[in-house]
Amino acid sequence: MIEKIITWEEIYTKIKLVLKEVKPTDTFYGIPRGGQVVAGLTGRAVDEPSKASIIIDDLIDSGATYNKWVKKYPDHKFCFLFNKDDEFPNQWIKFPWEESGAVEVEENVIRILEYLGEDCKREGLLDTPKRYIKFWTEFLSPPKFNLTTFEAEQYDEIILQDNIPFYSVCEHHLAPFFGYGSIAYIPSKRICGLSKLSRTLEKFSRRLQNQERITTQVAEYLAEELKPRGVAVILRAKHLCMEMRGVKKHDTWTTTSKMTGLFFEDTKARNELMNLIK
To answer: Are the C-beta atoms of residues 263 and 273 closer than 8 Å to each other?
Structure first.
């Protein structure tokens, strides 16, 4: 994760722009915590939302905080110094009054555990927040690779890599799902290094995902990079979000597939692939 450190100079510049666009009589209430600092820096801070004409915050990120406050105060104007999506997409934002990103996130993990009734001071949980952040940082950072390709040398039959293990995390419940993938393609002019097929599956699975999307993304990536005569991706996985919760059906496997080119158009090619996998 890239960390963007906001400087005091950037903050003062933004505040000046805000003050130019509002009335001299406007007052500000800051959304806790960062918004309170920002409101104070305007020189027009008030201690209650009902006394303010504008509610201000340091950053709009997912929009969850904004939506919560706008429901409570629908008649107020809202103002944000920075818009993460527009200015710093996919970055962790750190303001001068905040601790380092890792420390603050670990504190949030502690709050979640405490909310769930856990005692974070007991020995088994003392380092859990740190380990949890380390796990997510590692999992969401798959090794980068180059899709090395070579001349096909007139080879125009199926290339199949089977039983490729993969792990992912369900974006709906943050529960793991894992299984095996089969990736095949029929080359046109180029073939790729054998390890690149499993690395491609790892590239798209080590994210917050759903199985259907991984299947499609792997197939489309290989189709774009190799320009083959056909690509086939078949994934079989067990989902803990349905085995540990909800319907609680154990040892259930979900299969998804994506076929392009000859594998989609030619029944003979598709049947040959399925026989190879069997």
So the answer is: yes
Statement to judge: residues 52 and 19 lie in one domain? yes
On whether residue 144 sits in a domain, the answer given is: no
Q: What angle do CA 117, 65, 29 make, to 5 degrees?
A: 115
The answer to whether residues 207 and 259 belong to one domain is yes
CA nearest neighbour of 15 among 77, 73, 80: 80
The residue segments making up the domain with residue 244 are 149-277
On whether the pTM is more than 0.90, the answer is no
Per-residue pLDDT of the chain (278 residues), as tens digits, is 677 889 999 999 999 999 999 999 999 999 998 899 999 999 999 999 999 999 999 999 888 888 999 999 999 999 999 998 899 888 888 888 876 666 778 888 999 999 999 999 999 999 999 999 999 999 999 999 999 999 999 999 999 999 999 999 999 999 999 999 999 999 999 999 999 999 999 999 999 999 999 999 999 999 999 999 999 999 999 999 999 999 999 999 999 999 999 999 999 999 999 999 98
